[in-house]
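User: Hi! I have a protein structure encoded as tokens and I'd like to know what sequence might fold into it. I'm fairly new to this, so please keep things simple.
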């Protein structure tokens, strides 16, 4: 069988590989692994939304193709949400539904970069910011996120990574994997940098509604003039626990939105009508009591997991956003991969090696806080 050469140009997704290690460990030990790897929100969706979804699925038109642009209900709901939540006004051609945030992330190289171009990606950062690019001949120039700078961009350093082939820059707060958060003033600095270098910013704001300890995440589109260079990706996965439904959006610069819509018209047939209507309903009818309970659950788990990690000798800061704890491994540990594999073998506990997120993650691990920790004392 002859396989395309491009398959050799990018790695297997980290959680696909780790899942095999979990299966092998459970088989060898006859014990279920306590898996802190994937950030799959386990807090059940509001029953209010699920009941509505049943109604939308039963609609006589539910099975039809949805079209390549969001239906009016969906687009209007996203626009209303941005106005209510961020005081941002969006036009209809500045909104596009995505089949989950990762859909937009992986297709952006096709929309904005040509073969031989590069993009700026954070190190450490979410692997899909950089890993799909080589499929299309697009590489990444990495900018450092360092603990001494609170895992924020250092603009002089970032500027040195820009070439005449650099087409856009990834920015992500609350951050995956670091959990770092950014204020509106810090987003103003980022947009000023974008304008100075005429460089589009792709702002991944998937965790905007997963914040703790009084922090409220801003949108980059709140910055005056941001839509000249910026788009923002949002996700229903974290906000509403709809991860498996694959629902998200991209909003902002209309030229980028139009390019994405053209690319996606060749790649898929749009988000299904029932899911678009569910998304519209959820945005227009926020179950605030449910949302508060979800955040409370994650915050309690965050605190429990953090204490257990400290007892393993890990050094960490309590994150104010996202679903992850980013922790430094002990000086005595060889590297993050070895630390994680040893822990998996000895205690049947899995963290994600920080090296999966870039070279600056080599001395770190990432732990998801959205897993059941009722029996954590049996493991740690």
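Assistant: Happy to help. Inverse folding works backwards from shape to sequence: for each of the 380 positions I chose a residue that suits the local structure. Here it is:
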């Amino acid at each position: 069988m002859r396989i395309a050469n491009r398959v050799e140009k990018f790695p297997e997704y980290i959680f696909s590989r780790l899942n095999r290690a979990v299966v092998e460990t459970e088989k060898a030990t006859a014990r279920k692994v306590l898996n802190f790897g994937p950030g799959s929100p386990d807090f059940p969706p509001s029953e209010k939304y699920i009941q509505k979804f049943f109604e939308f699925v039963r609609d006589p038109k539910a099975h039809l193709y949805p079209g390549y642009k969001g239906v009016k209900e969906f687009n209007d709901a996203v626009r209303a949400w941005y106005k209510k939540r961020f005081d941002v006004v969006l036009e209809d051609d500045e909104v596009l539904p995505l089949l989950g945030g990762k859909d937009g992330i992986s297709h952006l190289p096709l929309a904005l970069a040509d073969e031989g171009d590069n993009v700026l990606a954070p190190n450490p950062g979410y692997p899909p910011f950089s890993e799909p690019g080589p499929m299309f001949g697009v590489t990444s120039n990495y900018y450092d996120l360092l603990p001494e700078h609170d895992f924020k961009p250092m603009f002089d350093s970032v500027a040195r990574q820009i070439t005449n082939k650099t087409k856009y820059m990834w920015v992500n707060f609350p951050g995956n994997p670091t959990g770092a958060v950014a204020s509106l003033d810090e987003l103003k600095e980022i947009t000023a940098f974008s304008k100075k270098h005429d460089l589009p910013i792709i702002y991944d704001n998937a965790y905007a509604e997963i914040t703790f300890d009084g922090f409220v995440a801003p949108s980059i589109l709140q910055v005056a003039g941001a839509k000249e260079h910026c788009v923002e990706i949002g996700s229903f996965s974290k906000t509403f626990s709809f991860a498996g439904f694959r629902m998200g959006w991209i909003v902002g610069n209309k030229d980028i939105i139009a390019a994405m819509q053209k690319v996606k018209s060749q790649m898929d047939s749009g988000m299904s009508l029932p899911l678009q209507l569910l998304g519209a309903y959820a945005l227009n009818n926020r179950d605030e009591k449910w949302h508060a309970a979800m955040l409370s659950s994650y915050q309690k788990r965050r605190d429990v997991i953090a204490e257990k990690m400290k007892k393993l000798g890990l050094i960490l800061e309590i994150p104010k956003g996202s679903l992850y704890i980013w922790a430094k491994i002990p000086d005595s540990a060889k590297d993050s991969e070895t630390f994680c594999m040893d822990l998996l073998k000895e205690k049947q506990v899995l963290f994600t090696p920080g090296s999966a997120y870039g070279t600056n993650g080599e001395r770190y691990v990432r732990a998801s806080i959205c897993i059941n920790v009722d029996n954590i004392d049996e493991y740690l």
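A useful reference point when you look it over: The first strand starts at residue 34 and ends at 35. Feel free to ask if any position seems puzzling.
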